[in-house]
Write a structure and sequence with these properties.
Elements: H1 6-16, E1 23-29, H2 38-49, E2 55-61, H3 66-71, E3 79-85, E4 91-92, E5 96-99, H4 106-119, H5 126-132, E6 139-145, H6 152-165, E7 169-175, H7 180-185, E8 193-196, E9 201-203, H8 208-218
Parallel strand pairs: 1-2, 5-7, 6-7
Antiparallel strand pairs: 1-3, 3-4, 3-5, 6-8, 8-9
């Protein structure tokens, strides 16, 4: 059963015309009863990849393809990596992950990521870029969302913009209702909620400067 309507496909195709360089979607799933959203997520990324010759798709099984799962640090499904492709044809991994189906409002951030990676520009301010350049230690940003949250895509895209800009940052969208154990572990009561290195956290779709500051503070970077 198709996920995207013909009208949706036409609109998405128009947006994907903005792509400049190729982008690869790397999808992980497993046909088990516990993964309710694996099949629809696979259908969604498959339909999406068919809409542009600049989009390619790789599919892996979390268990059978354990080497690939380890390479991309995938430990839960469904999971989608959005990566670039270098001039040498190799995958360029920016640490951008979607854990759960990127449906509802989150489909917008999924498309934004594709365009960002394809055009090669994060869109962050010069001040933010200079601050991120000071990072020397790994930063993992977990952004908990729900598909019906209109403010969540802003938080997800900011995390992914920063992951794209800095090799030290990984940005993970986590669909809260699909991973209830994680939502409980990180005390997710409202979304979007961003968790920094499994410690400090904040809620809400903050402006760029306000989103940046707790990240820098968590790793002791001053600007």
């Amino acid at each position: 059963m198709a996920i995207l309507s013909n009208e949706d496909k036409a609109a998405v195709s128009t947006r994907l015309n903005e792509m400049q360089k190729p982008v690869r979607l790397i999808f992980f799933s497993q046909r088990v009863a516990q993964c309710q959203y694996c099949a629809p997520t696979e259908e969604l990324v498959t339909e999406l990849a068919e809409l542009s010759d600049k989009l390619s798709l790789e599919k892996y099984n979390l268990v059978a393809d354990s080497a690939a799962a380890k390479l991309y640090n995938i430990d839960k499904i469904p999971a989608t990596v959005i990566a670039g492709i270098g001039d040498d044809g190799n995958v360029v991994d920016y640490g951008i992950r979607f854990f759960g189906i990127p449906s509802g409002y989150e489909f917008a951030s999924f498309l934004e990521d594709i365009i960002m990676i394809s055009t090669g520009e994060s869109g962050l301010s010069e001040r933010t870029k200079k601050a991120l350049a000071k990072l020397t230690t790994p930063v993992n940003l977990k952004v908990f969302v729900t598909p019906t949250c209109p403010y969540c895509p802003r938080a997800v895209f900011l995390a992914h913009q920063m992951a794209f800009e800095s090799e030290h940052i990984a940005g993970h969208m986590i669909e809260a209702s699909e991973f209830p154990q994680l939502s409980q572990k990180y005390s997710v009561m409202a979304v979007p909620k961003t968790v920094i290195n499994d410690g400090e956290s904040f809620e809400g779709a903050l402006p760029e400067d306000a989103f940046l500051m707790p990240i820098l503070q968590a790793v002791g970077v001053k600007i």
